[in-house]
Backbone:
């Protein structure tokens, strides 16, 4: 029987030592990770990031700036009454604003829906419950399987086809949500559907379908432009 040469034996020995060293190093890293304390939960008012999947992350972590939301506190006082921003229905100094994305997440005792827009500026807005939600312009009824409807209207929006060629639309020229889009894959408990309509006569309408009329709070953020709707969950009313 042929025996391996000294060179081959040396290579095999080195390979065995390296493999064993890597295995021990990996075990040590796992033990060190297990011994570390978990990161503390965000404190009231602390800036957090809401990822597209709905997870809450500390702002100190690396994240896409376009997903950055407000703190884990509600954006205002919860109520079922109609709400208007101070400037409503003024268009404001807005440029190229139209809806591009809807995100959602449960934030403990309330859930949050974020409607992101292209463009820049600070449009005005209003919100109210309605018994008969309709499509803006044509007035056709909006039909979903939800029991209550919260309508949010943003003033100062523009459809992409009416924008001037040299006007800033958005950092990535994001596509507008199609007119009448029904968004049902929400990470929510009370909201079942968000219906987005294209801008019409410089306003955009959004219908949020809920299991019942619940207290809500709403605000507008910029850079990027976002409407944030917080909806109170059971046990907190």
Residues:
């Amino acid at each position: 029987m042929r025996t391996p040469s000294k060179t081959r034996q040396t290579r095999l020995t080195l390979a065995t030592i390296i493999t064993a060293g890597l295995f021990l190093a990996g075990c040590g890293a796992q033990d060190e990770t297990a011994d570390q304390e978990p990161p503390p939960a965000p404190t009231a008012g602390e800036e957090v990031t809401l990822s597209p999947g709905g997870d809450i992350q500390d702002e100190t972590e690396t994240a896409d700036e376009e997903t950055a939301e407000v703190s884990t506190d509600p954006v205002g006082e919860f109520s079922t009454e109609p709400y208007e921003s101070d400037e409503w229905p003024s268009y404001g100094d807005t440029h190229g604003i139209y809806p591009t994305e809807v995100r959602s997440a449960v934030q403990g005792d309330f859930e949050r829906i974020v409607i992101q827009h292209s463009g820049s500026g600070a449009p005005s807005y209003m919100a109210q419950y309605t018994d008969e939600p309709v499509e803006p312009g044509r007035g056709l009824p909006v039909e979903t399987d939800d029991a209550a409807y919260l309508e949010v209207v943003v003033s100062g929006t523009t459809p992409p086809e009416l924008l001037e060629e040299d006007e800033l639309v958005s950092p990535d020229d994001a596509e507008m949500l199609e007119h009448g889009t029904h968004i049902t894959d929400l990470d929510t408990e009370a909201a079942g559907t968000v219906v987005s309509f294209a801008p019409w006569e410089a306003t955009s309408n959004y219908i949020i379908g809920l299991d019942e009329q619940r207290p809500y709070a709403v605000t507008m953020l910029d850079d990027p432009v976002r409407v944030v709707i917080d909806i109170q969950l059971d046990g907190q009313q």
Observations:
- The longest strand covers residues 99-106.
- The chain has two domains: 1-36, 73-232.
